[in-house]
Amino acid sequence: MKRKETYLDVSCYSNKWESILGWRASGGSKYKQSVSVPQWIKENKRYSMKCLQGLLVTDGSLYLDRGYRMINFTTVIPRLAQDVREMIVNLWFSSRIYRLKTKGKDKYVIKNSN
Question: What is the pLDDT of residue 113?
Answer without folding.
Answer: 60
